[in-house]
């Protein structure tokens, strides 16, 4: 009986085992299909988001590479270019709160796609003035344009003399000059950059959150790291594109290039700045297309289905059958959050380490953003390099050094398990040695070019105090010249003259770039002069300048790397010095402060300071002051590097204060707080073990330093 019972049980189990196996097989099959669709979907989103990061980084860096081109094309000072550059941050700030809050409720991929379309529209708008302003006109002596007419640059006959600057401007205005010049077209560039800022806003918060919601937890950090890596590659291609477009003449395809009488080395040269924006706009459109076909939700990975943490999107979605039950709870939660806002703000700003690090970051970002914005201009004016070569050097040398520095900082932190105190020391050391290296660049500048009447007198002596009056001398007193013209020629004595007329030249031969001027009375009176002839274009910088430029490149690359090493430790310090429930709020305040107090004002006041070093301003065709034609090299070096170093030094003092507070703070405080269920603020020992666990958070959060440490 016992045996038969066992057999019956065995028979029953054999009969029931088949359906169990089938159901388990089906569940395993469906699970594997779901897993494959999940992995495939998130990888498609990852590829699309990486391409968008590449597109926005490319267009942003391309704008930096065209700063001098825009300045010359629209005849505007550096301070106004700084306003245009800062308009991107203004556009970003206009909707960052709306996008961050409402974006989580809506279709996130499509919002990113819409952002790409807005970003591309802004990029196209920046290029539009080129097609409405007419052809670019530079100042040139008539005989260099039309070879059939031979005029004397020095017009001794008063009846042939040109009109005064005021009369000439009035005549052009009466002839419809206002329509031709388009003096306010730069507003379209500003509005386009503002639109770029608006379109870029949803990409970072919504894209990173989408990956964090639907990626396998252990893969999220890797995915976000891939996106950030591509974001660093974008500026390399942006500056290389800027280098390529700067070689091409601004009106390429619209004028006969053989008739162009200036070269890329001329300060009046404007490259095809608009062409790169069209290319960047097309790339932005292509980058946004995949997001219109991606789903609102992806299948959750198995490891997260039973997780107590829900996705950002699901926190905002209310199921229809639970509306009534959750509405009261949501209202209570919102009221609680509003009530807790000011205590949280007080708690945050009552944290001495956080507030000191925030001040240090704001001042350091002012230094870095101003330095990066005008670095191409500094290289062009200080070392006499073309815009094309300048952008090529920055894109191929400086940006890879920044990327390697960021990677090295994170590697050092992880390799040696550095805690908060060590991170503060590493960040401080990086800033100290970086700015110390920057100090050596004061000795690596070029002297002013010899420009008669501006940097040297017409007899080779020291320049006078009043530069405008010094443009006229006895040697050109018989000529009817305008002091507003800028059409430089190079005398055989190695001195540059503002124009052939101011050089006293009475004859010319040839046309275009090969024009040669003869019987130049001012060239013949110079101390070392053996001849009185001159050729078109300014003279080259001194023989020592190319060597100084090489030294500058080496120190600049090392400085970029050194400053970038401290980026990751500094960010770790920020994350570890705040309570966990205030972390998102603290990061939001940090990003807002950096954008408002550094991203917007720094390019403006750096531009104003650089404008003070101008020796010779150009004049607009309709009257008024245009772009600067010649800078005082020594003054530019002291203003540009000096302002960067002063701000950097002040930020170092704040960093020292952060380190001092950390040393003074007793570590047992962490133990007390952890006993109450909270992690402490800025413990020096208890944070070491948590470093690896926070890698994903570190990589998923916006870090603007990697975009500015060039």
TrEMBL record:
Q: Which keywords accompany this UniProt record?
A: Cell membrane, Disulfide bond, Glycoprotein, Ion transport, Lipid transport, Membrane, Transmembrane, Transmembrane helix, Transport
The answer on whether this UniProt entry bears the keyword Transit peptide reads no
Question: Which Gene3D superfamilies would you find in this protein's record?
Answer: 3.30.60.30, MFS general substrate transporter like domains
Catalyzed reactions: 3,3',5'-triiodo-L-thyronine(out) = 3,3',5'-triiodo-L-thyronine(in); L-thyroxine sulfate(out) = L-thyroxine sulfate(in); L-thyroxine(out) = L-thyroxine(in)
Sample GO molecular function, one term: bile acid transmembrane transporter activity
Q: Where in the cell is it found?
A: Cell membrane
User: Which residue ranges are recorded for the region named Disordered?
Assistant: 668-688
Q: Where is the Major facilitator superfamily (MFS) profile domain?
A: 45-666
Membrane topology summary: Multi-pass membrane protein
Q: Which PROSITE patterns match?
A: KAZAL_2, MFS
Q: Which InterPro entries match?
A: Kazal_dom (IPR002350), Kazal_dom_sf (IPR036058), MFS_dom (IPR020846), MFS_trans_sf (IPR036259), OATP (IPR004156)
Q: Name one GO cellular component term.
A: basolateral plasma membrane
Provide the transmembrane region boundaries: 40-59, 80-104, 110-132, 220-250, 270-294, 354-372, 392-412, 424-444, 548-575, 587-610, 639-662
Picking any one GO biological process from the record gives:
sodium-independent organic anion transport
Taxonomically, the superkingdom here is Eukaryota
Q: Where is the Kazal-like domain?
A: 469-524
Q: What is the protein's major site of localization?
A: membrane
Q: Which PANTHER family match?
A: ORGANIC ANION TRANSPORTER (PTHR11388), SOLUTE CARRIER ORGANIC ANION TRANSPORTER FAMILY MEMBER 1C1 (PTHR11388:SF99)
Protein family membership = Belongs to the organo anion transporter (TC 2.A.60) family.
Please give the name of this protein. Solute carrier organic anion transporter family member
Look up and give the organism this protein is from. Answer: Hippolais icterina
Q: What is the lineage of its organism?
A: Eukaryota, Metazoa, Chordata, Craniata, Vertebrata
């Amino acid at each position: 009986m016992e045996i038969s019972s066992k057999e019956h049980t065995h028979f029953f189990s054999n009969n029931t085992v088949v359906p169990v196996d089938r159901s388990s097989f089906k569940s395993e099959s469906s699970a594997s299909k779901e897993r494959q669709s999940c992995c495939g979907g998130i990888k498609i989103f990852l590829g699309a988001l990486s391409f968008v990061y590449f597109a926005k980084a490319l267009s942003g860096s391309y704008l930096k590479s065209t700063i001098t081109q825009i300045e010359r094309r629209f005849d505007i000072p550096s301070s106004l270019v700084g306003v245009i550059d800062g308009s991107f941050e203004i556009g970003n700030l206009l909707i960052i709160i709306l996008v961050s809050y409402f974006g989580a409720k809506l279709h996130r991929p499509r919002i990113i796609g819409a952002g790409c379309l807005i970003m591309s529209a802004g990029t196209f708008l920046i290029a539009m003035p080129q097609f409405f302003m007419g052809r670019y006109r530079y100042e040139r002596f008539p005989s260099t344009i039309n070879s059939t007419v031979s005029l004397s640059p020095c017009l001794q006959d008063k009846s042939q003399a040109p009109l005064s600057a005021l009369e000439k401007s009035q005549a052009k205005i009466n002839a419809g000059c206002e329509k031709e010049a388009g003096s306010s077209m730069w507003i379209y560039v500003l509005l386009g950059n503002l639109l770029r800022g608006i379109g870029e806003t949803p990409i970072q918060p919504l894209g990173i959150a989408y990956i964090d919601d639907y990626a396998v937890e252990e893969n999220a950090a890797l995915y976000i790291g891939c996106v950030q890596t591509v974001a660093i590659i974008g500026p390399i291609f942006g500056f290389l594109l800027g280098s390529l477009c700067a070689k091409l003449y601004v009106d390429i395809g619209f004028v006969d290039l053989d008739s162009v009488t200036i070269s890329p080395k001329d300060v009046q040269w404007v490259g095809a700045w608009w062409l790169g924006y069209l290319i960047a706009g097309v790339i932005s459109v292509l980058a946004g297309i995949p997001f219109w076909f991606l789903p609102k939700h992806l299948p959750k990975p198995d490891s997260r289905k039973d997780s107590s943490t829900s996705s950002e999107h699901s926190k905002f979605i209310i199921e229809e059958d639970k509306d009534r039950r959750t509405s009261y709870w949501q209202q209570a939660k919102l009221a609680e959050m509003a009530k807790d806002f000011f205590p949280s703000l007080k708690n945050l700003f009552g944290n001495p380490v956080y507030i000191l690090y925030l001040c240090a970051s704001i001042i350091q970002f002012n230094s870095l953003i101003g330095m990066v914005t005008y670095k191409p201009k500094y290289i062009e004016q200080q070392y006499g390099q073309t815009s094309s070569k300048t952008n090529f050097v920055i894109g191929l040398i400086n940006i890879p050094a920044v990327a390697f520095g960021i990677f090295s900082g994170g590697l050092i932190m992880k390799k040696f398990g550095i805690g908060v105190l060590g991170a503060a020391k590493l960040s401080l050391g990086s800033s100290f040695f970086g700015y110390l290296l920057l100090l050596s660049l004061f000795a690596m500048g070029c002297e002013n070019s010899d420009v008669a009447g501006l940097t040297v007198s017409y007899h080779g002596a020291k320049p006078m105090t009043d530069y405008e009056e010094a443009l006229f001398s006895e040697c050109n007193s018989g000529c009817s010249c305008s002091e507003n013209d800028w059409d430089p020629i190079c005398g055989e004595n190695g001195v540059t003259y503002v124009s052939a007329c101011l050089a006293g030249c009475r004859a010319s031969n040839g046309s275009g770039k090969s024009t040669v001027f003869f019987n130049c009375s001012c060239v013949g009176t110079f101390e070392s002069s053996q001849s009185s002839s001159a050729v078109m274009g300014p003279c080259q910088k001194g023989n020592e300048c190319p060597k100084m430029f090489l030294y500058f490149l080496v120190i600049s690359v090392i400085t970029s790397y050194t400053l970038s090493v401290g980026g990751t430790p500094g960010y770790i310090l920020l994350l570890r010095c705040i309570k966990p429930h205030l972390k998102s709020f603290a990061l939001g305040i940090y990003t807002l402060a950096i954008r408002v107090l550094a991203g917007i004002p720094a390019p403006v006041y750096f531009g104003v300071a650089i404008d003070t070093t101008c020796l010779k301003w150009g004049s607009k065709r309709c009257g008024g002051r245009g772009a600067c034609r010649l800078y005082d090299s020594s003054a530019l070096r002291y203003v540009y590097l000096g302002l960067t170093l002063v701000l950097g030094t002040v930020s170092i003092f704040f960093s020292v204060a952060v380190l001092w507070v950390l040393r003074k703070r007793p570590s047992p405080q962490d133990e007390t707080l952890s006993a109450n269920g909270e992690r402490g603020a800025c413990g020096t020992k208890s944070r070491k073990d948590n470093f690896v666990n926070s890698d994903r958070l570190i990589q998923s959060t916006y870090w603007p330093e990697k975009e500015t440490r060039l």
